[in-house]
Amino acid sequence: MNIWMFDFIWGWLVVPPILYCLYRCKRVAREHYFPHLSFFGTVGKWRNIEWLIKVLVVTLMAGALAAPIVIDFSDPRNRNGIDIVLSLDGSGSMNASGFGTEENRQSRFEIVQKIAIDFVTKRVEDNVGVVVFGDFAFIATPVTYEKEIIAEMIGYLNHGMAGQNTAIGEGIAMGVRALKDSKARSKVIILLTDGEHNSGAVSPKEAVSMVQKANIKLYTIGIGKKGEFDSALLSRLARDGGGKFFAATNQSELEAVYNAIDSMEKSSIKSAEHSRVNPYYQWPLAGALGILVWLTWRRKVAL
Question: For the domain 80-268, what is the CATH code?
Fold first, then answer.
């Protein structure tokens, strides 16, 4: 939503006295005698138009002095939303194919990348960050509203960047760290994996305790065939984290999972100090200067 405002209201206060002066302080014309007055046009009519043009110039200059601005409350930093961290499994098993359609033989990680990018770009009202975990976890992108940068960064990721194993506890703990400075009332971690916890210095139990203390909601997604991921662990983590567990055996099911999470409840992000302010004083100023140049040129031609 855009709202028009004026930075200096007193700029309009100069209009009444100047208009009064234009009306009362008229130029005194010297008397000239010429017998053929028909050679001249209707001076009185032009004088009236010229006076109106001068009024317009004064009004435009006063408008420029009042410094009109537009405050853009549709700035992503001021929209209703939540802070979300996508914690993605980047272990060696994510290189396996056969998760998509018969025609699409991309790896699991490539398919997850595509769906995650689509999810991020649709969350226009939210701040999003990305964590990748394997033997360890790292923050690929901090929590931000710059969706284009996040989507581009997800495209640069590769499986195996964080090692070949699956440290689920590390993936959750790093998500909590990414949300450490979040001011949003609602914070969410969406963890996706295709394996079992088998690495890392942080246990899943310790990680979910960190989630609870930070008042973060945890969603977990297991992808792949039944038995490939620890559904009991992921279900317990989601339950203790106040979220929900999802399972997806193929690409379409994973898309449905992200669509379901996309309908999560939203809350307000407190960042009003970052409102986008666009000045518009230059337009009335340019109009006034343009009219003055035209009046000066016309007067010189008339002479």
Answer: 3.40.50.410
